[in-house]
Amino acid sequence: MSQQAAALQNYNNELVKCMEDLCSKREELNRQITLEEVEKDRLQHDIRVLTEKLSRVNESLAHRLAARANFDQTITETQAAYTKILESSHSLLSVLKQETGNLSKATEPRRKDH
């Protein structure tokens, strides 16, 4: 029986060693899981922060784009009005020159024909 007892003790020792190895591997896996869960939580937090920041930037951008559109419209309207003023000034100057010429002719002394 002593051979059987020795074999049984040997099997028992191997079984204990295998159980210890499995427990060790499980602890290592559990450590890795914990690290990844911490990383996941950090990333989710970062995503929330960035999503909020993106929302604020999009809102600000929308306001600025609307303001720029208003500037563009005001500039376009002002340029059109200024062009009309220039055209009117040019027309007025032409009319004034013509009238000045007509008045000059009317006020010149008449020549005597010989």
What does this structure look like?
The mean pLDDT is 94. The longest helix has 106 residues, at 2-107. 93% of the residues lie in helices and 0% in strands. It is rod-shaped and about 165 Å long. It has one helix spanning 2-107. Keywords: Coiled coil. It comes from Pogonophryne albipinna. InterPro entries: SSNA1_fam.
SSE diagram, text form:
Blueprint: H1 2-107
Count the E strands. Answer: 0
Q: Which bin fits the share of residues in helices?
A: over 70%
Mean pLDDT: 94
Number of helical stretches of at least 4 residues: 1
H/E element sequence: H
First CA to last CA: what distance? 169 Å
The description of the largest β-sheet is: none
Q: Into which percentage range does the β-strand content fall?
A: under 5%
In terms of per-residue confidence, which ranges show pLDDT below 50 for 5 or more consecutive residues? none
Structural class: mainly alpha
